[in-house]
Write a structure and sequence with these properties.
Blueprint: H1 4-10, E1 18-23, H2 38-41, H3 45-53, E2 55-60, H4 70-77, H5 89-96, E3 106-115, E4 121-123, H6 131-141, E5 150-157, E6 160-166, H7 197-213, E7 222-229, H8 237-241, E8 245-249, H9 252-260, E9 264-266, H10 272-282, E10 288-293, H11 295-301, H12 305-316, H13 319-324, E11 329-333, E12 350-355, H14 369-372, E13 378-381, H15 385-392
Parallel strand pairs: 1-10, 1-11, 2-13, 8-9, 8-10
Antiparallel strand pairs: 2-12, 3-4, 3-6, 3-7, 5-6, 11-12
């Protein structure tokens, strides 16, 4: 387990650079006994070359058998103990869209969803409505009035929106209204601690008024809320690890993760070309770049094995652009597994590769779960990956006499 205080004390000056490429939801499962996972099925000559030139392994995002959300999955990759540094999704969404989140604000991630005539959810993401439609619906919901608090409803992307309550006495401890599966109605926004009852009551009023305003707006005829949280005061990544850091991500939430930890977030256009062109533009300014690609996770959640294979192959074709930047350390992994067979995040360890001149190479010639199981990196905690990258970048001094 990484010790932030110890890592900071061991930092030593260096001119080296680290690039972390996160393929969201990278880990997978075979859809038939003995078959390949999505990563194993993909043709990835460029990632395979990095694996052969470096070392591979598997990492456990939170702990054995624990299925991580996107927040803890990423927190661990940046060297933080995901059990100690917990944060609700709402804060990450708020920071990702540059919302001015204040000390007394309580934020949640909202989803437009689809319900049937009985009020049961049939699609938790409302068919991933266009972002333009999301903005129109958010403007309608912003008209809702909640006596005693100020309400903010901001579009994020596709079916996602930001929900913020501003006022006094708004405590954390409001349960999610998203049940996590279809065939049942949204849950009530219940208080999990007594002091959160006022905030929970406001959330319930909002959901009820949203339901009335969205009648006839199929597929986005209802909302769910999750990840209620306030902005925490955490040690910042650039100071803790001595790295000028940038977050290059298209989805606001992942820019929000970077911003929460003190990284510079940059705006990125919608295409794969935009993502890598932005990386190439900002790379000379920074020691550490976090590059996030959402598509494998989306395909996995949609249960589309072949599409997940395709997007992994598409990303592989962009890897030479990363290599051309000449990072001293390249680390490629995912924040969690999202097997298409399960259509959701899972607890399975996630493959990673690390390439640097100081790697002790293993026998892996390909990048995939079966090769990572026998790699030099073994099975480690996700929060150990960043210290490992720092060591290979020559940025950690010897410990002790």
């Amino acid at each position: 387990m990484a010790d932030l205080k110890l890592i900071h004390e061991l930092l030593t000056p260096a001119q080296t650079k680290i690039l972390l490429l996160v393929l969201d939801g990278l880990g997978g499962l075979a859809v038939e006994p003995g078959g390949p996972t999505e990563l194993e099925a993909a043709e990835t000559p460029n990632l395979d070359r990095l694996a052969a030139e470096g070392m591979v392994g598997l990492h456990q995002p939170v702990g054995p058998g624990i299925t991580p959300g996107s927040g803890p999955g990423h927190i661990g990759l940046f060297g933080y103990d995901a059990l100690r540094y917990q944060i609700g999704r709402g804060v990450l969404e708020a920071l990702g869209v540059d919302f001015d989140l204040q000390a007394n604000d309580l934020a949640a991630r909202g989803n437009f969803c689809t319900v049937d005539g009985d009020g049961n959810i049939t699609d938790r993401r409302a068919g991933r409505i266009p972002s333009e439609r999301c903005a129109e619906l958010c403007a309608e919901l912003q008209k809702i009035e909640l006596p005693g608090v100020q309400l903010f409803v901001e579009p994020v992307r596709e079916h996602r929106f930001l929900f913020v309550l501003r006022g006094q006495g708004l405590a954390e401890g409001v349960a999610d209204t998203d049940p996590g599966h279809v065939g049942v109605p949204p849950l009530d926004a219940a208080a999990t601690v007594p002091e959160a009852e006022m905030a929970a009551a406001h959330a319930r009023r909002f959901v009820e008024q949203a339901r009335r305003r969205l009648v006839g707006q199929e597929p986005a005829n209802m909302v769910t809320l999750r990840g209620f949280a306030k902005k925490p005061d955490w040690p910042l990544f650039p100071e803790t690890f001595g790295l000028r850091s940038v977050a290059v991500a298209q989805y606001p939430m992942y820019r929000g993760v970077g911003r929460l930890l003190g990284m510079d977030p940059v705006e990125v256009g919608p295409s794969r070309e935009d993502l890598f062109a932005t990386l190439e533009r900002v790379w000379p300014t920074y020691d550490f770049a976090f590059v996030h690609v959402k598509d494998p996770d989306k395909a996995g959640e949609d249960g589309d094995f072949e599409r997940k294979v395709e997007v992994i192959e598409e990303i592989d074709r962009c890897v030479p652009r990363i290599v051309a930047l000449e990072p001293d350390v390249i680390l490629v992994t995912g924040d969690h597994s999202t097997p298409a067979a399960l259509r959701s995040h899972s607890w399975h360890p996630v493959p990673f590769l690390l390439r640097s001149p100081t790697c002790r190479r293993d026998d892996a010639q390909r990048f995939g779960e079966r090769w990572c199981r026998g790699g030099e990196g073994g099975l480690c905690s996700s929060e150990d990956l960043l210290p490992l990258a720092l060591a290979h970048a020559g940025r950690l001094a010897k410990f002790g006499a």
